[in-house]
Amino acid sequence: MKTRRDFIKISAAGAGAATLGLSSLSWNGVNKLYASGDQESVSDEEMTAHSTYCEVCFWKCAGWTYVDKKGSIRKIIGNQEDPHCNGRLCPRGTGGVGMYTDEDRLKTPLIRETVNGKQGFRKASWEEALDLVASKMKGVSDKYGPEAFALFNHGSPGSHFKHLFHAYGSGNEGEPAWAQCRGPREVGFGATFGSWIGSPEPTDIRDTKCLVLIGAHLGENMHNGQVQEMSTAIDRGATIITVDPRLSTAASKSKYWLPIKPATDIALLLSWIHVLIYEELYDKDYIEKYAVGFEQLKEHVKNNTPEWAYGITTINPDLIRKTAREMAAASPATIVHPGRHVAWYGDDSQRERAIAILNALLGSWGRRGGFYFKEAISVPKFPHPKYPHHKWDWKDNLDGKYPLSAMGITQELLKASIPEYGYKHQIKSWIVAGTNLPLTIPNKELFQMAAESVDFIAVVDTMPMDITGYADVILPECTYLERYDYIRSAPHREPSIALRAPAVKPKYDTKPSWWIAKQLGERLGLGEYYKYDDIEEVLEWQLKKMGTSLAEMKKIGVKKFPRKSGGLYLLPNEDYHFNTSTGKIELYSFEFLDHGFDPMPNFTEHPQPEEGFYRLIYGRAPMHTFSRTSNNPNLADLMDENSVWVNPKVADIWELKNGQEVWLQNQDGVVSTFPIKVRVTERIRWDSVYMVHGFGNSNKKLKRAYGRGASDSELITNVMIDPQMGGTGMRGNFVTFIKEKPEEEVKS
Ligand SMILES: Nc1nc2c(c(=O)[nH]1)N[C@H]1C(S)=C(S)[C@@H](COP(=O)(O)OP(=O)(O)OC[C@H]3O[C@@H](n4cnc5c(=O)[nH]c(N)nc54)[C@H](O)[C@@H]3O)O[C@H]1N2
Ligand SMILES: Nc1nc2c(c(=O)[nH]1)N[C@H]1C(S)=C(S)[C@@H](COP(=O)(O)OP(=O)(O)OC[C@H]3O[C@@H](n4cnc5c(=O)[nH]c(N)nc54)[C@H](O)[C@@H]3O)O[C@H]1N2
Ligand code: SF4
Ligand SMILES: [Mo]
């Protein structure tokens, strides 16, 4: 059926791309994997180095982009001074130049038009495209109020559009970093320690003696600093304990691999808590001084013995005891890692509470080798008038649901875009900047209904990703290597800032987000919020206030500042106020109780797959970031499709061979658009299958990525919502195999 907003492909003409010869990956020697590998010899002296920070993922490593005399980018390397990367980029960061060279990039503004009943995009000037977006923003504001315009964003472009939206009068913004990613851990740790984990995580992995990874698959999750520190910790003999239904890279480096039955982690965590308390292995002085609720907790986990957990998790009770004792022996230099993408089963804030409680019992918060006290420096705000008051935002639509959500809930903004949901306040139009919603938000049907319901969608992106197929106007952003952005200020052991400056001019007719947002602002009569001609003026003003300058930052790239908040760790017997209602670590959460939630985590059973079905789990590959790198010439060279991991027992039953193509069908009858190759491996439990997220792109203009592998997202139709904060638990989906090409015409 034709709809008002048919999904359409964007045409792109292409020139050849330069390739970086990245060495093959082996996590054994982490160093090998950081080799930058530009083959032609041009000495560094013959090139100019430009400061940047990476946009290939949200770790934001600072680095140098080297440009030769002809103006070609030759390599990107890490900045030695940067605490996020210590001078070494991960393979994706090294291959980031592929974002610049990709010949499939968006090249000019595009506007949707219908000719003879057929929808397509036509090229437009920036003037025309910006005028159109601004007129739509004005129209919505006049008719419904600015609040009816929503922003979906992720990464650096977001900050420029947030400023625009606040000036315009809308607080309706959502990013997948909350409900699809790390929201539950911020709520779980916030309720326990009064502090978010944040990014980068303040895990003192470098000095740890015992690192416990619950699903967190460092090594495939390539968050640079953590992977480096984990490698150091392993060299120093730290014990690694990995809980994962799959033998992940981390599990293969671990002293203990606990191949847990998926969806049962809370049972394991409660039994570990049980052992620590009932074998009196917990840090008594620490708990006595800093925590409340110990007696309630002790009573609460009375029956959660390892034998009880065994029946649920399939993990041997002796192994549960042994690992608990190892954790205690290494404490307080033990980290039970909070994980990062933790929206799994809908009870994720409670699982994170259990992880936080375990860390508390081990005395690891504020201790060397546990969690350090992070510190960031704030960047002065460039002067502008006060933002107007908005009359409503996403919270007002929730009627008290998800009370602990601290950021906009993307899927709630989608629901508010669909009149049939009957939300009190309706969303009428969107700007989407830097997030590929159809592959990012589970339940694609919801996304499609929402996209169909709204009056207008503008997309700011660098690539013709699936999201651009839903746009009315496409605004092509230049890549991070071609632009300035705001100063990066992130918490770490020491506060630091990093500068992103352009290494080369924007290719094609592309522009940076700061410019796009400013142009829209000015067209909307918000010039008072943009009292500068160029972002360089803003950066110069801010940097001067911080005791440096744009010129200095261009030379050094990263600047560190002394800590002001005190030491990295608690001093012996130091009095310390935790930012909870009691000022203590809350083993028993009064915040949860106040909102009607269990003050201590409980195990609840989740459905298991029916016969012939297997739980669909997913994760990362070291050389890709979600869908954003799937078409990157350098990184697609290293991995150009995903595969589905199948246990040999299951492969036998289904007579599946390595490399055979299958389609996956989920419990609701949804069949993957594209086939995926089978990888038969003992590294996955028999009750689950595994695939890397970010593949199965359906836009033909992504020449390297189109139809390569399958998309986990489209098979995730059962979403379990976290009642505390609205997280979308995505791991309650089960798939079966289809060996012959399905009858139904393959959608594209
Ligand atoms: N099924 C499933 N869903 C998931 C996940 C999963 O594992 N499985 N993971 C979840 C997690 S943890 C997260 S954090 C989210 C991530 O969700 P997203 O951030 O939406 O992930 P990407 O697929 O990388 O999409 C980023 C988009 O930004 C564009 N882009 C890249 N660089 C720039 C730039 O400089 N400027 C602009 N304007 N655009 C740019 C890319 O082309 C792409 O369209 O996904 C979540 N959703
Ligand atoms: N290379 C690369 N690195 C990345 C990213 C990327 O796109 N590419 N994205 C970054 C982002 S935004 C995020 S949020 C992080 C996400 O990375 P993490 O937070 O480390 O990992 P998750 O995605 O939560 O979990 C993936 C692991 O969980 C296991 N798993 C599945 N089900 C269960 C279960 O029921 N119990 C347990 N214990 N384990 C289970 C899977 O087998 C897999 O190994 O990665 C970051 N790092
Ligand atoms: S971890 Fe890799 S992809 Fe992420 S910011 Fe650092 S270098 Fe870039
Ligand atoms: Mo994430």
Question: Which characteristics define this entry?
Answer:
single chain; 748 residues; alpha/beta; Dimethylsulfoxide Reductase, domain 2; Barwin-like endoglucanases; 7-stranded mixed sheet; 6-stranded mixed sheet; 16% strand; globular; binds ligand MGD; binds iron/sulfur cluster; binds molybdenum atom
Note down, in words, how this protein is organized.
The chain is an alpha/beta fold. Among the domains are: 192-371, 3-Layer(aba) Sandwich (Dimethylsulfoxide Reductase, domain 2); 614-746, Beta Barrel (Barwin-like endoglucanases), CATH 2.40.40.20. 28% of the residues lie in helices and 16% in strands. The chain is built from 23 helices and 27 strands. The strands form seven sheets. A seven-stranded mixed sheet has the order 5-4-15-14-13-6-7, with helices on one face. α5 (157-168) runs parallel beside α18, α6 runs parallel beside α14 and α12 (306-313) crosses α13 (317-330). It is globular, with a radius of gyration of 25 Å. The chain starts with 29 loop residues before the first helix and ends in a 10-residue tail after the last strand. 57% of the residues are buried. The model is unreliable at 8-38 (pLDDT under 50). The chain binds ligand MGD (2 copies), iron/sulfur cluster and molybdenum atom (MO). One ligand MGD binds at residues 55, 154-155, 157, 176-177, 180-181, 341, 433-436, 439-440, 442, 460-463, 465, 467, 477, 479-480, 513, 618, 625-628, 693, 712-713, 716, 730.
